[in-house]
Amino acid sequence: MIDEFSPDVSRLPLKFYFDNLFTGFNILHYLKQRGYDGTGTIRDNRIPKSCPLLAKNIFSKSQKRGDFISAIDKEDGIIIVKWLDNNAVSVASTCHGVTPLPK
């Protein structure tokens, strides 16, 4: 679909946002190669096995809601942030960094 954009649309600074059904490293890499950015929640089974955030016990019992950790794939420029909500939530992005919001 992205390859079928008209020349007028393909020059726009578009950013795509996905839910966890569509987010994966392959689509984020594909978008980045074509000059677009993407962000979305990502399922653990779609995070590369080499990523240190994939460990099940990444958060200790002493950590509280709102705590987060991050990792970056320097080759593709994809950042993954995992934070504690009621459960651990993971987000992958090619355009947003790790900047927590103030309380």
From TrEMBL:
Top-level taxon of origin: Eukaryota
Provenance organism: Rhamnusium bicolor
Domain PiggyBac transposable element-derived protein: 15-97
One MF term in the entry's GO annotations: sequence-specific DNA binding
Pfam families noted in UniProt: DDE_Tnp_1_7
Protein's UniProt name: PiggyBac transposable element-derived protein domain-containing protein
